[in-house]
């Protein structure tokens, strides 16, 4: 079985793939100092709790935090006896190499989202990922990543507002009942929620205009359901797009001799 690991700036997600479906998905906060032993203790405890019997034979990793990759490599080698495939490393083949400026390093998360979205929906896509950053990935007709947009994430914006303005409280994001807030919390929630609705709509509209062809918008990431239910921003919503993309890249490497 395959263990797919997606390490983001805020959370790290482990999913067990049996070739047909994900048996379970486990989530923990991202810490660069977490050791291989600590990862395994956490992982083994939860797998036992959920009653999952999985013999892991392969591990694939996507990480936007380079400092955690070493301990995840040790984790895979020590406890599963395998050399993990790490997206973005030279030995990891991509179904369709990105077409960007020479010397540009594309984030592994964006490569994985591109692979997953193309596998499910074909090309000519905009993938909007609500993570620590809100990213827009443009997927060409042939499945290649050809560029995009990076904006501050929703929670990052809320935290920055709280830290920079001493009088403003920290609030959780939700759809406000009305646009005009009558107290501080409602004002912040309205500004952030409707501000991001406007951001997504405007950026996607401009991408479509520049791209010059019809495009579908695929939404993913932790806060995507809130915006989809409230504002219908996406043509398609995928809650497991990144993990699916990891299985696509792993399969491609298996079939083409990298693993």
From TrEMBL:
GO MF term set: pantothenate kinase activity
Positions contributing to substrate binding: 107-110, 184
Record keywords: ATP-binding, Coenzyme A biosynthesis, Cytoplasm, Kinase, Metal-binding, Nucleotide-binding, Potassium, Transferase
Metabolic or biological pathway: Cofactor biosynthesis; coenzyme A biosynthesis; CoA from (R)-pantothenate: step 1/5
Catalytic activity: (R)-pantothenate + ATP = (R)-4'-phosphopantothenate + ADP + H(+)
Cofactor(s) required for function per UniProt: K(+); NH4(+)
Chief place where the protein resides: cytoplasm
Active site residues according to the UniProt entry: 109
Chain sites annotated for binding K(+): 129
Record EC number: 2.7.1.33
Protein's UniProt keywords contain Chloroplast: no
Oligomer and partners: Homodimer.
Family in the record: Belongs to the type III pantothenate kinase family.
Name the record gives this protein: Type III pantothenate kinase
UniProt organism field: Ruegeria spongiae
Source lineage: Bacteria, Pseudomonadati, Pseudomonadota, Alphaproteobacteria, Rhodobacterales
């Amino acid at each position: 079985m395959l263990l797919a690991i997606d390490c983001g700036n805020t959370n790290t997600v482990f999913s067990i793939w049996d070739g047909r479906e994900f048996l379970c998905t486990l989530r923990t906060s991202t810490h660069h100092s977490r050791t291989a032993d600590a990862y395994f203790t956490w992982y083994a405890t939860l797998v036992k709790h959920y009653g999952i019997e999985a013999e892991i034979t392969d591990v694939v990793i996507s990480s936007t935090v380079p400092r955690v990759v070493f301990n995840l490599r040790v984790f895979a080698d020590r406890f599963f006896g395998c050399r993990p495939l790490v997206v973005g490393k030279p030995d990891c083949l991509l179904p369709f190499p990105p077409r960007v400026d020479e010397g540009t390093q594309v984030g592994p998360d964006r490569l994985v989202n591109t692979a997953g979205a193309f596998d499910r929906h074909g090309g000519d896509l905009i993938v909007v990922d609500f993570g620590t950053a809100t990213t827009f990935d443009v997927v060409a007709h042939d499945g290649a990543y050809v560029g995009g947009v990076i904006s501050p994430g929703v929670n990052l914006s809320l935290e920055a507002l709280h830290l920079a303005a001493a009088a403003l409280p920290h609030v959780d994001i939700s759809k406000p009942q009305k646009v005009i807030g009558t107290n501080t919390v409602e004002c912040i929630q309205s500004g952030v929620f409707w501000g991001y609705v406007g951001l997504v709509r405007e950026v996607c509209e401009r991408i479509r205009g520049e791209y010059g062809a019809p495009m579908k918008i695929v939404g993913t990431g932790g806060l995507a359901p809130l915006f989809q239910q409230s504002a219908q921003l996406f043509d398609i919503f995928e809650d497991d797009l990144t993990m699916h993309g990891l299985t696509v890249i792993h399969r491609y490497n298996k079939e083409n001799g990298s693993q």
